[in-house]
Amino acid sequence: QWQLVESGGGLVQPGGSLRLSCVVSGFRLDLYTIGWFRQAPGKEREGVSCMDSSGVDTNYADSVKGRFTISKDTAKNTAYLQMNSLKPEDTAVYYCAAKYSDFLTMQVDDYDYWGQGTQVTVSS
Questions:
Q1: pLDDT at 102 over 80
Q2: d(CA 34, CA 96)
Q3: Cα 100 → chain centroid
Q4: pLDDT tens digit string along 25-84?
Q5: Engineered SS bond to 118: which of 6, 30, 60, 112, CB 3.0-4.6 Å?
Q6: If we measure between CA atoms, which residue out of 112, 116, 111, 100 comes closest to residue 39?
Q7: In this structure, are residues 48 and 106 in contact, taking their beta carbons and an 8 Å threshold?
Q8: What is the C-alpha separation between 92 and 114, in angstroms, rounded?
Q9: pLDDT > 90? residue 1
Q10: What is the DSSP letter of 77?
């Protein structure tokens, strides 16, 4: 039974940092492309970052480049999203997702497995 469980969300002031975690069970993260997505109220879910199965190639949405960093620890079967210099517009529910392939993509429809999401609120 596969499962992705996100944690690390919360309320943070503008300019602050958060580190999201995504613990994966039921499959090996080193065989899957991992993606982070977010969905703000009234908006469509959008891709934030992704990493291929090898952990070598990554991609970021323009809105988060230079501020967010995706990583993973295959020994812990866990993916991370380090978020720095947070802005109010980063407020959303953040989801991790996985796809069995090496294809680097940030398209929602390309992913097969999803977590339940964690809320990130950036506000003073």
A1: no
A2: 7
A3: 16
A4: 999 998 999 999 999 999 999 999 999 999 999 999 999 999 999 999 999 999 999 999
A5: 6
A6: 116
A7: yes
A8: 16
A9: no
A10: T
